[in-house]
Specification:
The chain is an alpha/beta fold. It has twelve helices and eight strands.
Length: 311
């Protein structure tokens, strides 16, 4: 069992209306916007999507909206990780029931767990949905628990429906170890936008890019160039993306990401879920102007404006 997703997977923003409620029409518009620009998958409920700030029912509704909006044009991998095994199971079973193509699961967070405890947790969830693809999600900086290579190897041996991993550790060595699993068929995705080119070079199949919410054309172009082996173009595009990353700080303030989406002509607001705070309008304007000066923001016609930079 393998999804074999290759390309740019977007940890899609969760858009709220001005009252702080999920904005289904705005979410549908964002899904259409991303799919039309060539992304290869959607990942609702992750860090960029404020997933862990939502109630269980909101997480379920977000998954439903995304699956409905995607209309099977691209796979939807729902993030179902939670602090308890019971909630992880409930969210995972719900994702399968609504027609998602897979789930991704971050380790239970806050408390530190041994490899043996994490093995039992993931094995229990995978066994509950034996016909459904499960991705591991390694993000030790926020989960307080790392999926060690030994643990991943053990899980892959025990659970045939654990088909891949998203790694946000920032370690190229870790990603390289993951790409060797199942004879290279283990679906491996890098979670750092600064490593898209490097991760492609060692055999990763996909990237999960938060910045692709706001500059999907650039991220897709970079991934495609790296996949095609066009190193001159890929290096230039990686440098351009790194400049974007410095301006938007990789989504450190999610209200900025949302404001840029609105500036690009989509419906929605910059409202974020408390305790997150919204960036001031003047700060947003300054960042938008800095981004525009790179000439990387697509024109009204939708064409990517290339930065004038030598290869």
């Amino acid at each position: 069992m393998n999804q074999n997703i290759e390309g740019v997977i977007v940890p899609i923003l969760t858009l709220f209306d001005e009252t702080g409620q999920l904005d289904a029409p705005a979410m549908t518009s964002l899904v259409d916007f991303l799919v039309e620009r060539g992304i290869s998958g959607l990942f609702p409920g992750g860090t960029t999507g404020e997933g862990l700030l939502l109630s269980t029912r909101e997480r379920q509704r977000l998954a439903e909206i995304t699956v409905e909006a995607a209309e099977a044009r691209v796979p939807v991998i729902v993030h179902t990780g939670a602090i308890t095994t019971a909630e992880t199971l409930a969210l995972t079973e719900h994702a399968r029931a609504i027609g998602a193509q897979a789930v991704a699961i971050v380790p239970p967070f806050y408390y530190h767990h041994s490899d043996e405890t994490l093995l039992q947790h993931f094995e229990q969830v995978a066994a509950a949905v034996p016909d459904f693809p499960v991705y591991l999600y390694n993000n030790p900086a926020v989960a307080n628990n790392s999926l060690s290579p030994a643990l991943v190897f053990n899980l892959v041996d025990r659970c045939s429906n654990i088909v891949g991993i998203k790694d946000s550790s920032g370690s190229i060595d870790y990603l390289a170890a993951m790409t060797s699993l199942r004879g290279g068929a283990f679906n491996t995705a890098s979670g750092s936008d600064g490593q898209i080119l490097a991760a492609q070079a060692i055999g990763c199949h996909a990237c999960v890019s938060g910045n692709a919410n706001v500059v999907p054309e650039l991220v897709v172009s970079l991934f495609d160039a790296a996949s095609a082996g066009d190193l001159i173009l890929a290096r230039r595009l990686q440098r351009q993306l790194n400049k974007v990353r410095r301006i938007v700080e990789d989504g450190a303030d999610l209200s900025l990401f949302k404001a840029i989406v609105v500036r690009r002509g989509l419906a929605g607001s910059s409202v974020v879920r408390a305790p997150l705070r919204e960036m001031s309008s003047s700060q947003i304007e300054n960042r938008w102007q800095a981004l525009s000066r790179l000439n990387l923001v697509p024109s009204p016609a939708g064409d990517l404006l290339s930065e004038k930079e030598a290869p």
